[in-house]
Structure formats: structure tokens, C-alpha cells
Design brief:
The complex is a heterodimer of chains A (about 140) and B (about 60). With about 140 residues, chain A is mainly alpha-helical. Chain A has six helices and no strands. The longest helix of chain A is centred in the first third of the chain and has 29 residues. Chain A starts with a helix and ends in a 5-residue tail after the last helix. Chain B is mainly alpha-helical and about 60 residues long. Chain B has a domain of about 40 residues. Chains A and B meet through helix 3 and helix 6 of A and helix 1 and helix 2 of B.
């Protein structure tokens, strides 16, 4: 009897943990560092928030290209996906860049890379938080 | 507003900033103990700079 109860409880616990991990991952994507903060990993949460935030601010400040969904080619679409990786910071980058992108200079080009790197870095952090929530070694 | 102010960085400053920020993020994500994080950040930063400057010099002949 107790074995049956254990056998039924284990998959339920696993599915609950998976659901929680998914929420943590999505939260980490939407707000950089929030996934780790939910797991009480304060150092990692702060590091993710500050590094992604700094890259977004500097990238927008250098007038990097914040891609939108109306991309002309595959590179624009990939850039859009990378920028979306910053979650809500994507909207912040859009609002910071009031004069639009200027990639005619090296600075603007670097800014574009900074914004894309911020997105990919945040996706990595969100994936890390998701794995940590699933109980993997982190 | 920040874009209006305009952040102007040289090539070297951009590379340094990128290397420092990414190294810190990698260090915090991949290591748990503070001393290990510091070691990883320094090591990663040095490698970033070494590879960046190395690639720069490797491209130098093509610019002339």
C-alpha cells in the first residue's frame, strides 16, 4: 500500500517541480535575474540583472539596432530573437532609443552586438535558473 | 534620453566593457564559491582580451 502511494506521489511531485521550474524560467526571461531571485540565489540574480541591464543601456546609448518583428532577412529575424531574449528590457531598449539606430558608425554596430549579447546572456541565465529549479546541480 | 546623450566608446573600450561584463556574468552563473568566481572571472577576462587582440592582429595584414 505504502509503495503504491509512493509510486503515485513521485510523478505528481515531479510534475509540480517541472511546472515550478517552467515558471522560474519564464520569470527569469521576462525580468533578468528574477528566476534566480525566486530561488533565493541572490548573487546570481543581481549579476544577471546588472549585466543584462548594463549591456542594454550601453547598447541603446550607442544607438545600436533594436530589431523589430518586420525583419527583411534572416539576420534581422535572428537579431529580433536575440533582442527578445532580454524580456521586458527589450521595451526599455526601445524607449531609450528615441533617435533610432545609427549603424553607419562603428559605435552603433557595437551597440547592436551589445543588445544581442544581452538577450542571449539573459536566455542563458533563465535556462540556468530553470535547470536549478529542476534540481540539477547549479 | 541616454541615446540623446550618446555613449561614445572606442574599439578597445567597447571590447573591454564587453569582456568585463560577460566574464562577470559567466563567473556568477558557472561557479558557486566566491573565490572560484573571482578566479573564473579573471581567467575568462584574460582569455577574452587575448583572443580579441589576437584576432585583431590576425586581421591586420588584410587592412593593408
Amino acid at each position: 500500500m505504502s509503495e503504491e502511494t509512493t509510486a503515485v506521489a513521485a510523478p505528481q511531485q515531479n510534475s509540480k517541480r517541472e511546472a515550478l521550474a517552467f515558471v522560474v524560467g519564464v520569470a527569469g526571461w521576462l525580468v533578468p535575474g528574477l528566476g534566480h531571485a525566486l530561488l533565493k540565489m541572490w548573487g546570481r540574480a543581481l549579476a544577471a540583472f546588472l549585466t543584462v541591464g548594463l549591456l542594454v543601456i550601453v547598447g541603446a546609448g550607442m544607438r545600436g539596432n533594436v530589431f523589430n518583428s518586420n525583419g527583411n532577412d534572416a539576420f534581422d529575424s535572428l537579431g529580433y530573437l536575440a533582442d527578445l531574449g532580454t524580456g521586458t528590457f527589450y521595451l526599455a531598449a526601445k524607449s531609450l532609443e528615441t533617435n533610432g539606430a545609427d549603424v553607419s558608425h562603428a559605435g552603433g554596430d557595437y551597440g547592436t552586438r551589445f543588445l544581442a549579447a544581452a538577450g542571449v546572456l539573459n536566455l542563458l541565465a533563465a535556462l540556468h535558473a530553470y535547470e536549478a529549479a529542476r534540481g540539477r546541480k547549479a | 534620453m541616454i541615446a540623446e546623450m550618446g555613449i561614445k566608446l572606442s574599439h578597445l573600450q567597447s571590447m573591454l566593457l564587453f569582456a568585463v561584463v560577460i566574464s562577470i556574468a559567466f563567473g556568477f552563473l558557472s561557479r558557486r564559491r566566491p573565490i572560484e568566481r573571482v578566479k573564473y572571472i579573471i581567467w575568462s577576462l584574460l582569455l577574452f582580451l587575448l583572443v580579441g587582440v589576437g584576432i585583431g592582429w590576425a586581421m591586420y595584414p588584410f587592412s593593408h
